[in-house]
Amino acid sequence: MSAKSTKLAIPLAALLAVALGGTAAYVLGVPPFEERGDIGAESVCESLGDPEKAAPALERVLPDAPEYSFDDTVSGGSVAQGDSDYTADCFVSGNGKVLLSARTELVPVGSPGATPEDWASEALDGSSPEEDETFAAGSKGVVSADRAAVLVPCAGPGNVPGGSYSLSVVVDGKGAGGESGSRVHRGLTDLAVGAARFSHEKAGCDLPSELPS
Fold this sequence. Notes:
Layout: H1 3-28, H2 51-61, E1 69-75, E2 87-94, E3 97-108, H3 116-123, E4 134-135, E5 140-143, E6 147-160, E7 163-172, H4 182-202
Antiparallel strand pairs: 1-2, 2-3, 3-7, 4-5, 5-6, 6-7
Helix pairs in contact: 2-4
């Protein structure tokens, strides 16, 4: 073999080794081809509602990560006891960053800028939802490429100082793994409805939730 041929053979051999190594890494599930971590019903945030429904909804929305962690906080008392400070927060992390958040809080009804339309625009990060971005849940349900939100009746006048209150639930998919379409929309809306149902009961709301069964 000539000197020229020898110089060509070495890099070709190196490329072949890299290709074979990459295939082996994919098969074995080692970086950069890490396997997707399991999302078990036993590990999801309580504030997302029924874990048997929340887990598959998260599967539809979350991007791939070798493992997921959940941080759940529920605070405040019951509106039946006159408490308007109820909040619930769920954060799902993976790959060293927050991949999804679900925030639930009590908001006064009828205050300036608190109409369902104003609420929907704020819930979707300032954009006004189109007709095809609404769904039937609570007083109003809206969904975008990476967010879903539900406004749910909670406390009638006379129970909590300040008048009537609704629960505002906003699920932010943080980009929803760069995907879009009906699969992600379904996951986001299921998570928002599940979180709304949990908090409607947890906060002791006295008004019908108007959530789908």
